[in-house]
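In response to reviewer comment 3 from the previous cycle, which asked for concrete evidence that the modeling workflow produces usable outputs, we include below a single protein chain processed end to end. The sequence was submitted unchanged, and the resulting structure tokens are shown without manual editing.
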Amino acid sequence: MAPRAEPTAVVGWGSLNPLGVDADSTWNAVVAGRSGIQVIREPWTDDLPVRLAGCVPTGTLDSLSPLLRRRSDRCTHLAVIAARQAWAMATPVTTGIDPNRVAVVVGTGIGGLATMHDQHMHLSAGGPNRVNPLTVPMLIPDAAAGQIAIDLGVLGGAHTPVSACASGAEALMLAQMLLNDDRADLVLAGGSEAPVNRLGLVGFSAMRALSTRNEAPDQASRPYGQGRDGFVLSEGAGVLALMRQSDTPEGADLGWLLASGSSSDAHHIVAPEPQGLQASRAIEDALRRADVSPTDLCGVQAHATGTSLGDLAEARALRRSLGSAADHLPVYAPKGQLGHLLGGAGAVESILALQALRQGVMPGSLNADPLDPEVMLAVTNQGPVALPSEQGKLLLLKNAFGFGGHNISLVLAGSRPAPHG
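The workflow returned the following structure tokens.
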């Protein structure tokens, strides 16, 4: 039997994404039912088959120094701002922690894609002398974690899981492992991605992964919807400040990561295993490590990207792992509003999941109506669903899956869990 993990407290968070420049504005946009997807009206998109995406609001990066903005990629910019938000929020309960005991775990699916694209263009147009000497440190995937450690002066290790769209959720799993292994007392964990550029849109479009609804951007991302035709590429970052339960003052938590589960499909580099067999293993691993059953859950936050194969594989996995509980557990699919933040998705969405538990409501799943008849789940396609107020400890399952068959499932809680033991 898998050992039970010590619950991990969330004591701060930061988020910026197409719906908001922090966690509160993001939540308000979600409950208002707004979409963050828009048509990109820049000349570089004129010849592209897909011209829609989710972009962080203009002006968000203004707080960064010109030097940092010049010497790092947009992926890093977004991550640093999210980390600063989480760090500031956590300060009241982290004062006095040794910087040697503060770690950073920030994942990404790609890293500095814009830098890679821009510098290749410079090389092609002007030769070697036109290439920025900082190209490599700007584009490497671990740049965001490294810059956060530099920016905040924390010395407990900087780590970068690169597991495609599961990267942000895997960062939370690794953070909990660092805390449980007593390698850190506080971990800033999450993910960041900035793929909305010519290379990103062309690359995903060429593999027919993206929705082509350029004329109706707010209806393009349709997770679990019958008419879905692919996901919508988005940018953003989310970072959570995590501590051990035993170190967290009473009432200081914003929510809890109880346990994490993982598996790999070993099936195909892009397509999921169609029956969701290994995704089920990740779900069941998380439930087992949290020592909870499907009937203890109050809801599910799905990965649900809006691709035909991926949505069905996850739906089958949830039905298999949750059994009869899947008949009534509300399932929320946030990418209908956010689009797909790739490596940043797991962290940004986990913050939304914890906010849902705190507010006692599962948001509606935008564009999931009409529901694909093969998705036999209680998707919130008709609007928000109130969570049971009489249940003292609200628990939620959150999934994140990535190209290459990476499967991560998290069990999150919205109130202080029972003592570890």
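The chain has twelve helices and 15 strands. We consider this sufficient to address the reviewer's concern, and the full set will be provided in the supplementary archive.
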